[in-house]
């Protein structure tokens, strides 16, 4: 597991790419630790971070590393609130505070199992770096709200897409596509990240089918390294797991359920 220095680093934005409703923030990071697929970083802009109409400070925001390439770390952004909006405003040359990589990532499949990558909305991010790293057969299934967000599918290779409004690909739930895949070939490992209802459906489906699954959760975090206990989720059999330290990738069998606060934005 890659471990970050216990201090944030001031890095420079190398560029920003548009993917429909999303932005890919490319950050120059030649000397930083190489992230494992599924790990995340805490991000905050170097300028104008905090304040606003009510003068409240903004905590850093947790984002999965979407890709590591040619000395750059990539992050997938969507404007869903004051913190993500400020990050979406960054341009090449701007400064960015980064703490990471943090957390536990995905584990590659064993016994020749096929990997099914299942992503919803901005939750597709950690699946891109995972696809880059896997050396086994991979099936990619991605779900989005609409056509603008479905352009994010370009982040991964050979993806099949479902949309809520039917504007692209399958008209319906992403789990419809997963059900077909598992019925045809249940000898697989499912890797999923996305909205909480999707993750809970995946957890229940894989449990009933006896298919192992690893879920990347995205609960709101204040610290990113296990100190504040603000991102806990219930553990099967009792107790809690800290998403930032015990995850964000957690074996689905360890979870009693996926709570509403533990998913990525749709």
Q: Layout of SSEs?
A:
Elements lengths: L8 E11 L2 E7 L11 E6 L15 E4 L2 E3 L2 E6 L4 H7 L6 E8 L11 E7 L4 H9 L4 E7 L2 H4 L8 E5 L6 E2 L2 H11 L3 E6 L2 H14 L3 E4 L15 E3 L5 E3 H4 L2 E3 L15
Helix pairs in contact: 4-5
Number of strands: 16
Spans of at least 5 consecutive residues with low confidence: none
Strand order of the largest sheet: 4-3-7-1-2-6-5
CATH homologous superfamily descriptor of the largest domain: Nucleotide-binding domain of ferredoxin-NADP reductase (FNR) module
**Count of helices?**
6
Query: Largest sheet, described in full?
Result: 7 strands, antiparallel
CATH topology of the largest domain: Rossmann fold
Mean pLDDT: 91
Q: Radius of gyration, Cα only, in angstroms? A: 18 Å
Q: How much helical structure, as a percent, in the residues?
A: 10-25%
What is the domain tally? 2
Query: Structural class, from secondary structure content?
Result: alpha/beta
What proportion of the residues form beta strands (DSSP E)?
25-35%
Overall geometry: globular
* CATH class annotation of the largest domain: Alpha Beta
Order of helices and strands: EEEEEEHEEHEHEEHEHEEEHE
Beginning-to-end CA distance, first to last residue: 28 Å
